[in-house]
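Input.
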Amino acid sequence: MTTALLVLSGCALLLVPTLLFLLVVHPIWAFIEACGSTLVGRGGKIVWLLMLLLFAIVASIPYALFVSASAALRQVTIVSLALVAIIAGVSYGVVQYNPHLKSQVMAKVSEAKSMYSQVKDLSEVAKQLKW
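Output.
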């Protein structure tokens, strides 16, 4: 049990900065790189800049992997995505193959569901009260 919690804590410590990078820094880096790119023509640059503005997080990953001239951006994207996949796999494996931890997680989920239904019932009662 303690080993499983240590592994999950380590996964969380790696996952949080990686996701922050992918959600905040990566789209900005891709947009700046797209502004200075000379690989695509003017029309292609306009399309990619609009895509990066409208769908920043989703569009920055394909741009970095397939269009970008920056090898650093491509490599960091590949490493970040691989790290997220590995962390997700390890976390899933730890929870699935540790029956005690899995039962505790399921108990907490059912407890949260019951608390939600209690709050929902209380909100219905509060709505019926006329102040």
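Helices lie at 2-35, 42-54, 56-67, 71-96, 99-128.
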